[in-house]
Amino acid sequence: MLVQNLANLVWSYATLGVVDDPLMASISAAAMSQMEEMDSQNLSNIAWAFAVNALEDLPLFDALASRSINQLSSHDGDAQHLSNMAWSFATIQYEHGPLFTAISGASLRSIAVFEGLNISNTFWSFATLSRRDAPLLDALASAAILRITYLAAQDLSNSVWSCARLAFCNLPLLDAIASRARAPGCQFVAQDLANTVWAFAYFLYADSPLFEAISEAAMRKISDFISQNMATTAWALEELDCIHEPLLHALSKEVLLKIDSMDFMPMATLLDRRLWPESHAAMASRLFPLIDDFCARLLQASSLEFWRGGGYQHFVLEFGVGNFGAVGGRYLYSKLGIFDPDEDFLLRASGHVPRIGRMMADTYVADGADFLRQRVVTYAEFELRSPDLREPLRGSGCHENGRTYASSWIAPVRPPLCPYADRGTCSEFRMLASFCDAIAQADPQGTSSASGRAEISGFVRALVSGPCCVSCVGAFAQFRRLFPAVVVSVAAGGVPEPLQP
């Protein structure tokens, strides 16, 4: 079969949504044998067709990448080819470094001819694979601003979502997208609404008219919202201090209608929102048994090797929940023997934690582009006593997320759905790791054995500005296993007031 016919055939089947595995295998083999004859359109059509059908034929994708790189070394390729190739590889989560480097270079040289879909697909592809290519991001932002009136709702949503995913803080682009999104005739579907408001909330971007418009649009499309859309929208509007009670009532009703089909992580997020008590009770009745199972399996760990040897990492990836939220997290901690701190501590701590919820740190510049750090603050007070210490170790203060803390005592893990996350940077992990190092330095003999560590007593009290991820849950569990006589109490994130029907 001729190369053009081969590419047209596979494109047609994918467009119709028809998946024929034997046929796709034959097409893959034929494409591999004729790779040197393919032009850029053939390459992108085949890549797109396999990606749409979630067919991760890596040998084929490697061959497509190699051929595309060779072509881009002699000419830039058209915008459609560049964005389609990037989209196809990102869709199957295949970060082919040399290909994306070539696509970036060619895109920079061709950016003047990029249209709305080319811009948003390229943004989305690099964001999905967490590739912070500052020159390309700046060029895409400038192109999007220049063509903002031609960007469709999905292009706007994908572009601003990509900025947030990469923490790429380009205020002129955010302003342009916000203005365009408010314009009459810009029609968002449920997924676009949720992604757009989430992205603006990531940057704590204030635009009350935009969020009012999104809230009203969400009300009209609420029946189309899946659980993730509901959770994303409710979280974002709360973080932006946009209280739209009619939408909260609509979300409360929708939770009850869809409770049996809701995913667990969105439920954990919604359980932290101001919804009807009946909605909270319905979600808790599904989420808490899952937490019971999580804790039961966690408490079965017989030694610290479960964490250090990768057992906990495997467990959390298999379990598939990255964060149980503030309400779910407190229930989880109670099962691990970690309870809420007393009110006096919480009153003191609230004076040190600027905000319970999302906070942003300063921007930083990398390769000429501005990126934004998320800020998580943990205020803690501790007292650690040992028979070999004349005076207890005491202290108080704030701990923030930052440079990863290399600890020989406790181990972080990568949460599910966060393939590039380094949780050694979390404020809670850094705090607990520093406490371990402090007591080990003060009493090296006492901390050298399990029996010695069992005689170390005292307390650690902490207030965290947001819910703890499963990595930090594991960090607290490890600290408790290391020092079982130390009383640990934690409050992470805020517990909502119920919304009366």
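The above is record 1. Record 2 follows with the same two-line structure.
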Amino acid sequence: MVTASEDNTAKIWDTLTGRLLLTLRGHTNWVTDCDFSPDGTRVITGSIDHTARVWNAGNGTLLLVLEGHTSDVNACAFSPNGERIVTASG
């Protein structure tokens, strides 16, 4: 499971034990939404900092920063095949 937080991070949790596995750091404001890719290898996060970010879900490495939004990124998701990303801002 992945959760978004007002502390500017997203966290990946083990759903069987409840143990924190990874903390994704890099946003400069609240993380508003997050989603796993369909194959579980990546996480996308959206933030009030006007960016969306793509992370390696296994080790927390930042893979990509999507800039260009002129307002908060309120929602983000992967397409069913994992090849595209959609974000909502405003």
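The two ends are 26 Å apart (CA to CA).
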